[in-house]
Hints:
Elements: E1 2-7, E2 13-19, H1 27-51
Amino acid sequence: TDMNVVCMGDGTFIEVQGTAEGAPFDRxxxxxxxxxxxxxxxxxxxxxxxxxx
Length: 53
């Protein structure tokens, strides 16, 4: 599975793009991928805010 996600620090989505590569994915896997993406976006946002201090 290949997924690109762009989101704001508050978890709202700007872009979601995903492709099943090799085998399809189900809704539970999609939800997990989105949860990981939102967590990563939050981490990146915090790192960016810290760098601006």
